[in-house]
Amino acid sequence: MRSVTSVFFGGGTPSLASPSTVAAVLEAVAGAARLPPAAEVTLEANPSSTSASHLAGFRAAGVNRISIGVQSLDDAELRMLGREHTAAEARKAVEAARGLFPGRTSIDLLFGLPGQSRDAWAQRLEATLGLCDDHISLYQLTLERGTALAAQVRSGALPAPPQDLLADMYQTARSVLVASGFRHYEVSNFARKGALSTHNLSYWHGDQYIGVGPGAHGRFVPRAEGGHSREARVQTLEPVAWMREVQSQGHGTRSRAVLSPLEQLEELLSLGLRTDEGITHERWGHFCPQLSLQAVFGQPGEARALQQEGWLVLDSGGLRCTWAGLAVLDSLLPDLLLQLRRVLGAARHPLSGGPAEE
Ligand SMILES: *[C@@H]1O[C@H](CO)[C@@H](O)[C@H](O)[C@H]1NC(C)=O
C-alpha cells in the first residue's frame, strides 16, 4: 500500500473545525493509504480560533504541526488588514501552539502594508523573533480586488508601497532571519533547526499530491483508475455545490487534464527554482530522462545569459537561483521557459509518453 508523507489542513479556517472532524479525515486517509506516525500533519489556524484546549484536541486527533496566520504583531496594522484578531491574541495563540507543538509551530507574516516604513518593518521582525518558533512564512501583501484596503489604496486614501521599498523590506527580512539562524529555503519561507515544511516542499519538488475540498488542486498519476500520466485535477470551488457533488457522485472533482511532458517540465521549473536547492539533476531526470539539465540550459541562450548576470547557477548540484535571483524569480522565468520550449521543440526525438512516477 502506498504511503502518505504529509497531510495539510489549509485554506479558509480549518481551526474552526472540531477536532473530531479532523480525526475523522485522518482516519479516512489512514484507511485509504498508509499514514506513518512520522507523517507531517499540519493544520492552519487563525489566532482568533486558537485556544489552548482546542489545539490540544487537534493534537490528540493526530495533528503534529501548526501554522498560525499571525500576519502582524501590530494592532493598527491588523485593523487595516481587516483581521479579527489583536496582536495580544496572536501572541497568546503562538505561545499556546509552541507549548503543544514545540519546534513545529509556523507563523505567517505580511510585509509591504500601505504606509509601513522600513523601520516599522524592522521593528516587527525583532518582535517576531522574540515570539516565533522555527518556521516563518513571509508574504508581501497583495491588494485583492474588491477588498476595502484595495479600494482605499486605489482612491489614494492610503499610499501604495513603492517597489524599491518592498525589495528593501524583503532583503531586510532575509538578513535579520539568516542572522538568527534561519535558512531561507524557499522564496517566502524560512526555517531553522531543519524545521522545513515537508508538505510544501513536495509541491516545489514536483511530487504527487491529492487535493480534497472546495477549490482544491491535485497533481498525480491516477494508477487506481488505470492512468499512467500525471494529471492536474481541480475540485469544484463553491462549497455547497462541492458537498452536493460529493454526496451524489462520490467526489467533487470538477476538471481533470493530462499534463503534457512540456507542461510538467514547465511546472517543475517554475516551482523548483523557488527553493534554495533548486532543481537537482536527479529530479530533472525523473521528469525528463531524454535531455539533461545541461543539454537544455547549459547551451548558449537565455539561461547562460542569466548565469553570467549572476541570477542563476548550473553546476553539479543542478539548476538554482542565486539569492539575488530568488528575489526576482518571477522576472527570470519567462526567459527560462522560452529556452525550455525552444530546446524541447528542436529535440530530434520529441518527448513521448509521460515520465515514470514511482
Ligand atoms: C503550504 O501548502 C498549503 C496547502 O496547499 C497552503 O495552504 C499553504 O499556503 C502553503 N504554505 C506555504 C508556505 O507555501
From TrEMBL:
Looking up SUPFAM superfamilies in the UniProt record yields:
Radical SAM enzymes
Pfam families associated with the record: HemN_C, Radical_SAM
Query: Which locations, inside or outside the cell, does it occupy?
Result: Mitochondrion
UniProt entry tagged with the keyword NADP: no
GO CC terms for this protein? mitochondrion
Q: Which family does the similarity line name?
A: Belongs to the anaerobic coproporphyrinogen-III oxidase family. HemW subfamily.
Q: What is this protein called?
A: Radical S-adenosyl methionine domain-containing protein
| Species for this entry | Lonchura striata
Gene giving rise to this polypeptide: RSAD1
